[in-house]
Amino acid sequence: MLDKKILALVKTGKGKGLVELKEVPIPQINETEVLIEIKAAGICGTDLHIYNDEFPYWPPVILGHEFAGVIAAKGEDVKDWNVGDRVVGEPHTLACGKCWLCRTGNRQICPEKRSPGWGIDGCFAKYMRYPEPELLHRIPDSLSFKEAALVEPTANVVTDVLERGRVEPADTVVVVGPGPIGLLAAMAAKSGGADKAIMIGTEGDEEFRLSTARNIKSIDYVLNVSKDDVLSSVMDLTAGRGADLVVEASGAEGGITTALQLVRKLGRITAIGLTGKETIKFPYDSGMLKAAELYFNLSTSYTSWDTAINLINTGKIEVKPLITHIGGLPKWQEFFADLENKKGIKGIFLP
Ligand SMILES: [Zn+2]
Ligand SMILES: [Zn+2]
User: Fold this and answer.
1) What's the 106 CA to ligand 2 centre distance in angstroms?
2) What DSSP letter does each residue of 76-133 carry, written as one string?
C-alpha cells in the first residue's frame, strides 16, 4: 500500500487561489513520527483565509489542520501509541521548546510553530505525516470521527470562553457571530455553568446559521440585529445590567461595537474573530467607561483538548447540527464557496 499515490488538496504557491487537487505520494515517516490515516477533516476559516492569501503559509503545502483519524504506521522509537489508535491532534507542531513562550507552557503561540495545513503538510489527504506524537489525544470509541473532527474548533472555544473568559455560574453570555466558532462558544458557555446563552447574528446569517442556533437546545435566545432591538432585549434579560461575558466571534466592526454596547460594567469580552483589516473603528471610551476586560485569543491551550473531547462525547456540546457539508476532497470548490458565502456552517472532508 505504501507506494500508492493519494489525492491531496494543495496550496501550490503564494497568492490568491492557487489551490489544486493533486496526486501525491503517501508521506514517509522517520523513527519518531506517526502516519495518520485521516478519517474526517474539518474545513476551518483559516483554510479559506489561506485560499485568499490572508494568513501565513509555506507552499506547496497540503491544507487542513482539523483532523480525526487512526494511526496507520509508527516509527520504531514511538512508544506511547499503537497502530489502530483513534486520535485527534493539536496543531502546535515544530514549536521550538526553548523560547519564553514554550518554557511557560504556551507552545501554541511559539514563533517557530509550523502547523499542519500551512507550515507542514496537513490533513486534506488520505494520509498525513505527524511529527510529534506527544501532541495527539486519544478519542473514545463512542465518539465518531466526524464529531471528533470538531475537537480542534471546540478546544478553541474551551480556551477562549471557559479558560480565558472565565464563565461563572449564573452568567449571562452573549455571543456575537453565529459561525461554527460562535455556535460552539455558546454551547461551551452553557457547559461551563452559564445561566443564559444569547446568540446574535445578522440577516445574512438567518438562513443557515441563526436557524441552526434556534434548534440547539443549550442556546436560549437567538436575536437578529436586523429585526430585533438587541440592546433592549439583553438589558431586559439581565435586569438592566448587561452581559457578564460577551464572546465576539464575528470579526466585523459592527459586531465589535455591539459587544462593547452589550457588556455590563466590569464585564468581560473575549474576542475570537480576526477582522482581516489593519485597523478598525473601535469604541474605546465605551470600554473604558465600563471598566470592561477584553481578551484577545489565538489558538488552543493544552488543557482545552481533553475538555473538548469530553464535552462533545457527553453531548454537552452538540457538534452534529453544525455539519452542513460532508463529502470527498473533489467537492472542495463547492464546499469552500458555500462556507465563504455563509451557505453552510461546517464542512467535513472524508478524504
Ligand atoms: Zn481550525
Ligand atoms: Zn518556542
Assistant:
1) 8
2) TT--S--TT-EEEE-S-TT--SSSHHHHTT-GGG-TT---BTTTB--SSBSEEEES-G
Q: How far is the CA of 103 from the centre of ligand 2 (A)?
A: 7
- pLDDT one-digit tens code per residue, 45-96: 999 999 999 899 999 999 999 999 999 999 999 999 999 999 999 999 999 9
CA of 16 to the centre of ligand 1 (A): 20
String of DSSP letters for 242-260: -EEEEEE-S--HHHHHHHH
Query: What residue ranges define each of the domains in the chain, with the CATH number in brackets?
Result: 5-150+319-349 (3.90.180.10), 156-296 (3.40.50.720)
Which ligand approaches the C-alpha of residue 111 most closely?
Answer: 2
**pTM score of the predicted model:** 0.95
What are 232-249's pLDDT values in tens digits?
A: 999 999 999 999 999 999
